[in-house]
Hints:
Elements: H1 3-17, H2 24-31, H3 35-47, E1 52-55, E2 61-64, H4 77-88, H5 97-110, H6 113-124, H7 135-147, E3 149-156, E4 162-175, E5 178-185, E6 190-195, E7 199-208, H8 214-218
Antiparallel strand pairs: 1-2, 3-4, 3-7, 4-5, 5-6
Helix pairs in contact: 2-3, 4-5, 4-6
Amino acid sequence: MNRTARLYALVEELRAGAPRPLTxxxxxxxxxxxxxxVQRDLQTLMExxxxxxTTPGRGGGWSIDREMTMPPIRFTADEASALATAxxxxxxxxPFAGAARxxxxxxxxxxxGPASAAAQELAARIVALPSRADSAVRAAVxxxxxxNTVLRLSYVDAAGxxxxxxxxxxxLLTADGRWYLIxxxxxxxxxxxxxxxxxxxxxxxxxxxxxxxxTELLLGSAAAGATRPMAPASLTPPP
Length: 239
């Protein structure tokens, strides 16, 4: 078993045993390698962002948070190349760009041989010009969308007028190289789109937001005909 395959097998072994921790000795015996090799592999997983952790003392060992990981997904070489390329070329100012970059790295690591070389070569030929967007604003927007919480914004419109808004985020829209936060604006009592690079400041309130349908908020706007992402339920399970 090569190292890449062993790393994936190691994650699955920890997932299968979760939440019970497994000792390094047990893992070494399972994969027929030295304890030093297992320690090095576990350190590699930690550095790659895999949520493995160690519990010291009697009855301790290594474990993984099942809720923070996914089982293996078998991509074709073309699918893996497409994903790795799209993620690696993501604009650094786009929402969730940090997570996109680490996901691209994990996909690249999982690939071997000609498929890996082709994906990396293709990714190197795609560039993205960064747009002006504050990293603190982007982080606040990401957190509000993930946790479904209310945001307090300082927003500058196209005429340069600044206003304070309290909004309930519903989703993100990308158009013509720009990113917009689509939200219910409590101040205007209507659905609004806020261009991320025009948000001067964003502060999470911690208040839980009411659910809003993204399609409803887009009705009557220039983005009413926007293409929605494919819903998981519409995907056909592989044979």
